[in-house]
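[09:14] KT: can someone run the structure on this one? pasting the chain below
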Amino acid sequence: RSRIPQIEPGNADGYLEAATVFWDYFQFDDALRLLAEGRRKLSDPALYAYQAGAIYENKGDYDRAIEEYVKGALINAGAGPEGASPARSRLLQLTRRKALRPVIEARTVALVTGGNPDRPAVALRLAILEQQNRRDDIGALLLSLTRSTSSSELLEDLSAAAVRLGFESVRESVLERQITLASDDVERI
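[09:31] RB: done, structure tokens below
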């Protein structure tokens, strides 16, 4: 089983196939070892994030599972409809469990703290707040990020989210912020 990746050492599927064999026989540590080896040899620390998360979840290690799912959700932000990678979908499912909410909350809030968080992190945080129907928190996040960011791309994302979710006052704030940050008179107009 451990020799499968050696057949094509540059192929990510070999590591996953070998890990799956171990996983099927509940040899979780061996499966995780092979995934880690594949990540190391292929120089991709987020590779197999969904699978690693599922293995940690099978082991009952939800903190590490959530960490892997977050990693996978951020890396694969553009996968599928509206960025719905398998890792992101699973993370959104886990937010329904009361016992796991604090861990997910802490991890995703930390991702969007600061003036210019990564756009995939903001999209993930918004998705989690939407999943939990936390409309007031969504509005507060959009407004806070609008006031603190200097990223024109993030402002465009915030504007689109404000329109999609019906936060007209936030959209107006985004426009005001874009005008403030505009570097020349033509852009300001």
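[09:33] KT: thanks! DSSP finds twelve helices and no strands in the chain.
[09:34] RB: yep, looked fine to me
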